[in-house]
Amino acid sequence: MDGSTLTATTAPTNDFVVDQGWNAYNPQEHALWRHLFERQSEILPGRACDAFLDGLRRLGVAADGIPDFKRLSDILESATGWRIVAVSGLVPDDVFFWHLANRRFPVTSWIRTPQQMDYLQEPDVFHDLFGHVPMLTNPVFANYMQAYGRGGLKALRLDALHYLARLYWYTVEFGLIKTGDGLRIYGSGIVSSHTESVYCLEDPAPNRVGFDLLRIMQTDYRIDDLQDVYFVIDSFDQLFDATRPDFTAYYNDLRLRDDLTPQTILETDTLISART
Ligand code: HBI
Ligand code: FE
């Protein structure tokens, strides 16, 4: 994705890191975490991939309440050298990528309200911590996320972020992986969603297409509804290997092509299951 590692060192003026404020969480917020955690714990075994479930266990993320980021960071750092930093919400793209390029994952410190139980636009602590952090205990996926951060800084310079954001969307957020027991979930947007954890594997509506880097970066996505297409990797090695080339040529190629809608199926697609 990027030709140099210099991008990881030029720090932005503001890193947007805040204190988590763990002592300020009230009992209702911890209770909401417990409810969200228990609801997902009932449906993810047999649906989420082993890397996610092993990560959850290794980090000791449990139902008792909103975890302390520092405790989790120490465990995560011993696994893959990643740490988590508390932020108060979405941070500018360049800051987000700079943190990823330095093996720091920004985790939102606030939790959704009970009214937002099933859907909220911005990531909260449940989406970020429960959804994203367990995957960072997997060494290959952890390498992919750092490569993504470096690639994001470069994509910003090439005005190509909208292409790379699709790769993030269809892998990190909504990715599926093939296993000997069938398709499993690794995408954070899915594992943190009660409805989509079932829909993505069992509903006949969405298309499921084999991973294809350029195809993904050409495909638009919806942020406010269940996905119309899921892309399926064979392994995390396949995902990480795809980031090795310099993406400049890909971006130039994509600029000559029309965007694809999420419902599109191409002749060249490896179709795993089509909408019925
Ligand atoms: N900031 N805190 C936070 N979390 C995100 O997931 C995030 C962000 N800023 C930018 C961003 N994501 C996206 O624009 C990139 O994934 C493309
Ligand atoms: Fe996310």
Write a structural description.
With 276 residues, the chain is α/β, with parallel strands linked by helices. The protein has helices spanning 27-43, 50-59, 69-80, 93-101, 125-132, 139-157, 161-173, 188-191, 194-202, 213-217, 236-241, 248-255, and strands at residues 83-87, 104-108, 176-179, 182-185, 207-210, 229-233, 271-273. The strands form two sheets. It has a five-stranded mixed sheet. The protein has a two-stranded parallel sheet with strand order 1-2. The longest helix is centred in the middle third of the chain and has 19 residues, at 139-157. It binds 7,8-dihydrobiopterin and fe (iii) ion. Fe (iii) ion is lined by residues 123, 127, 132, 173, 188-189.
Topology at a glance:
Elements: H1 27-43, H2 50-59, H3 69-80, E1 83-87, H4 93-101, E2 104-108, H5 125-132, H6 139-157, H7 161-173, E3 176-179, E4 182-185, H8 188-191, H9 194-202, E5 207-210, H10 213-217, E6 229-233, H11 236-241, H12 248-255, E7 271-273
Parallel strand pairs: 1-2, 3-6, 5-6
Antiparallel strand pairs: 3-4, 5-7
Helix pairs in contact: 4-6, 6-7
Summarize it:
The chain has 276 residues and is α/β, with parallel strands linked by helices. It has 12 helices and 7 strands. The chain has a single domain, classed as Phenylalanine Hydroxylase (Orthogonal Bundle), CATH 1.10.800.10.
State the main characteristics.
276 residues; alpha/beta; Phenylalanine Hydroxylase; five-stranded mixed β-sheet; two-stranded parallel ribbon; 12 helices; globular; binds 7,8-dihydrobiopterin; binds fe (iii) ion
